[in-house]
Amino acid sequence: MEQAQTVSENPHGKTTIDPAEIEKFSAIADEWWDPFGKFKPLHKFNPVRLAYIRDGACAHFDRDRRAKKPLEGLRLLDIGCGGGLVAEPMSRLGAEVVAIDAAERNIKTAMAHAAPLGLDIDYRSTTVEDLAAAGEPPFDIVLNLEVVEHVADVGLFLETAAGLVKPGGMMVMATINRTLKALALAKVGAEYLLRWVPAGTHDPRKFVKPEEAKAALARAGLSVTAEAGVGYNPLMNIWRINEDTSVNYMLTAVKA
């Protein structure tokens, strides 16, 4: 496994990094793999988004999703990878994974968890704009999951991330809609009533409407081909894909 790389200077002087957000997630980096800890909602949510990514990628690249390693031969970038909750399953599905996070503590946690499992994941402590500025070759698949609501410049972030998708490749984005319903459920409910995540995890002013994301992706040369909502069923205690994008939603976009 390669060693984590540190954040470098961006020659253009632009950044998508919000230092307060990096500090927030660095403080709880040791809890990424605790299914009952501060990242419990992501562990519950993970099977839904993993299936969405796998099925979308298999459909786009004409692969059999029932195969043992359906993403074999595809190069994948996981932006804001945290402790590796998505990077590891993507590696097991056969993808060649580069996983980046601006918080070095997250990367160290991810590397420590992957090492004994023998997973060959290229973890790097860097930003998407520094990765692009360094001349990183484009990827077949770029994952942008629960990241845009934590960056300082959404437009720059999506433009830069889109530039790392190779022609014929795809991006999967997951985030939270900027609606009153999302404010009530994803902010007030999840943080203060149910205490699913630490108070202050989300700033509802940073939530992104689907039409805003689509417009930014279109300006960067990507076309949205699929859109889905993700909802929680409290009776069954599971997350499911649905058609309601008013709170959590996922987009698939491709580059011609």
Task: Summarize, please.
The protein has helices at 19-26, 40-60, 87-92, 104-114, 128-133, 154-163, 180-193, 210-219, and strands at 75-79, 96-101, 122-125, 139-145, 165-176, 222-233, 238-242, 248-255.
What's the number of domains? 1
Give average pLDDT, whole number: 91
CATH topology (fold) name: Rossmann fold
What is the first-to-last residue Cα distance?
Answer: 33 Å
The assigned structural class equals alpha/beta
**How large is the count of helical segments?**
8
Q: In CATH terms, what is the architecture?
A: 3-Layer(aba) Sandwich
Relative strand content:
15-25%
Number of strands: 8
Strand order of the largest sheet: 3-2-1-4-5-8-6-7
**Which CATH class applies here?**
Alpha Beta
Rounded to an integer in angstroms, the radius of gyration calculated over CA atoms is 17 Å
Description:
- This protein is of the alpha/beta class.
- It has a single domain, classed as Rossmann fold (3-Layer(aba) Sandwich), CATH 3.40.50.
- Helix content is 34%, strand content 23%.
- The protein is built from eight helices and eight strands; from the N terminus they run ααβαβαβαβαβααβββ.
- The chain has an eight-stranded mixed β-sheet.
- Helix 6 (154-163) crosses helix 8 (210-219).
- The longest helix is centred in the N-terminal third of the chain and has 21 residues, at 40-60.
- The protein is globular and about 45 Å long.
- The model is unreliable at 1-12 (pLDDT under 50).
